[in-house]
Amino acid sequence: MLVIFIIIISLVFYSIENPSFIKNSIAKLKSFYTSETTSPDAGIETETFSEESEDAPALEEPGDLKEAAEKTAEQESKNITGKAKAFWQKILSFFIKGLKRDENDFPSSIEIKVFFASLGQEDKFSYEQRTIVAGNAKIAVENAIKELLEGPHKSFNFPVIPPGTELKGVDIYENLAKVDFSQKFLENSLESGVLDRYVIYTIVNTVTQIPDVDGVIFLIEGKRIKIYGSVDLSIPAIMDEDFISQDNPLEKYSEDLTNSQADTAD
User: How many structural domains is the chain composed of?
Assistant: First the structure.
């Protein structure tokens, strides 16, 4: 099916470039079938010339006719080859320009929210604003996960990704990030169903902020996992907004603590 699709697209591009292509093809087909049903001598008028007539045209030698026909065919072949080459060059140039344009449009750096669990907040994530190096989706995802593995900078936040976890690789496929972790991601996982969701969705909610990334597929040492504790990963995991608060819980907690300390001092 892919080959047929490519052929159809190629014919469409070629017909746009050469408007007479379809018309000429139809004409050739008509002439082919017409020549089979028509007698070779039908419709041909003959004119006789006397051997002594001075007006009789000189007949060309068969060798001259053959040579002329070969030259004509060779020239037509060169013209067709040249047009086909130019046609494919234009298609190739079109796709190359599209790829370069997409790559150049991706920001060189991105500001994202890196999600962590927060003290006193059981149902919402806290976050820390970080700026990561990008350039394309793959690099951005790699750097976002490195920020997660580095852990929080604020004392009110704590990481939930199992200790010792390493990032083995990242691949981007059709707006999905395939994230490959080391075996420690499974071996050191916590046994609480709530924390299983925390582990997965601090990663997913962080990564899916990146342009062109709508979901995450999890792998361990190159092999896909379809379940993590109580979390079903048989389909790509997408952002779970239930864990996201409009206000950063960290800021709210810090503000409450500051007010409490001020009241105590008074």
Answer: 1
Measured torsion, CA atoms of residues 139, 141, 142, 144, in degrees rounded to the nearest 10: 120
Look at residue 70 and tell me if it is in a domain: no
Instruction: For residue 176, give every residue at least 6 positions away whose Cβ sits within 8 Å of its Cβ, in sequence order, or none.
Output: 213, 214, 215, 216, 217, 236
Contact 220, 183 (CB under 8 A): yes
In our burial notation (b when 16+ CB lie closer than 10 A, e otherwise), range 126-162 reads bbbebebebebbbbbbbbbbebbeeebeeebbebbbb
Q: What is the pTM of this model?
A: 0.58
Q: Are residues 158 and 119 in contact, defined by beta-carbon separation less than 8 angstroms?
A: yes
pLDDT, one tens digit for every residue, the chain (266 residues):
655 766 777 666 666 666 666 666 666 666 655 655 444 444 444 444 444 445 545 545 556 666 777 777 777 766 666 666 666 666 666 556 555 545 568 999 999 999 999 877 678 899 999 999 999 999 999 999 999 999 999 988 999 999 999 999 999 999 999 999 999 999 988 766 778 999 999 999 999 999 999 999 999 999 999 999 999 999 999 999 999 876 665 555 445 544 545 555 55
In a domain, 144, yes or no: yes
In terms of residue numbers, what domain contains 184?
109-240
17 found inside a domain: no
